[in-house]
Amino acid sequence: MNAINIVVAEDEAVVARRLARQIMETLGPKTAVTIAGSVSEAIAAVSQSRPDILVLDLNLEGRDGFELLRDPVLGRCPTIVVSAHTDRALEAYELGIRDFVPKPFGRDRLALALHRAFENAPRRLERLAARDANQTRYVAIDDILYVRADGARSEIILPENRVIRDDRMLDRIQALLPSHFERVHRSFLVDVRKVECLSAQEGSRYAVMLRDGTTLPVGRTRVASLRARLG
What is the phi/psi pair of residue 184, to 5°? Predict the structure, then answer.
C-alpha cells in the first residue's frame, strides 16, 4: 500500500499535533501528515501534495477556512472539517465535505470521519486499526471474515481462525468498516462477499455459511435485508 497523504489545516499547534498523531494511529505508519497553520499554507500544501484527505479547521489565523472549500480546484479534495463552529456544519456539508467533527473531538469520532471520507473516495481505505489495550494492530480489511461481539469488546476473525481483539463494541467497529459488512445478528458482523449461502434451520432459525465453511446465526429481523443483499 502506498503512503496515505493527509493535510491538516489547523492554526493551534497543540491541536494540530494531536490531530496528526491520532490520524497516524488510525491510518497506520505509512501515513504522511503535513500541517498547515494558515489558509495560504493550506492552499500551498493541497496544491503541491494533492492529499487523499484534507482535515480543515474553519478559523485559520482569523481567516475563513471556507476559502479552501469554495475554490473550484482545491474544493475537490475530500475534506473533513474539525471545528467548534457547529453552526456552520450545514454550510460545510452543502459545499461537499465528507464529515464534520465538532471540537472537542475524541479519537473514535475522528477515526469514524476518516473512514467515512475514504468510503466514497477513489482510493478506499485498506486497513482497520484494531486497538487492544495499549496495542494497535493494522488489519487488512479484505482479510476480515467476520467480527463477533465479546461483551463490551469485539473479536476480528481472519482466515485460519486467527483472532484479533479490539477494545470497541461491535457497533463502533461496524461504523468503521465498508458497507459490504452486514450486521446479520446482534453479535455478528459479516463480509457479505464471503457468504456462500443463507439457509433455514430447525425452529424457524436461519444461518449463513461462509466460503471457508464457517456457519453463523442470522437474526430473524435481519433475514430479509441479508437475502436482498445476497440477491
Answer: -100, -10
Between CA 155 and CA 138 the distance in angstroms is 14
Task: Report which residue type is found at 151.
Answer: G
Q: Give pLDDT tens digits for 138-189.
A: 999 999 999 999 999 999 999 998 999 999 999 989 988 888 899 999 999 9
**Number of helices (H) and strands (E), helices first, in the chain?**
7, 17
DSSP letter string over 126-172? Answer: -EEEEEETTEEEEEEGGG--EEEEETTEEEEEEGGGEEEEESS-HHH
DSSP tag of 2: P
Q: What fold, for 4-119? A: Rossmann fold (3.40.50)
**What are the two backbone dihedrals, phi and then psi, of residue 44, each rounded to the nearest 5 degrees?**
-65, -45
Q: Which CATH superfamily is domain 141-230 in?
A: LytTr DNA-binding domain (2.40.50.1020)
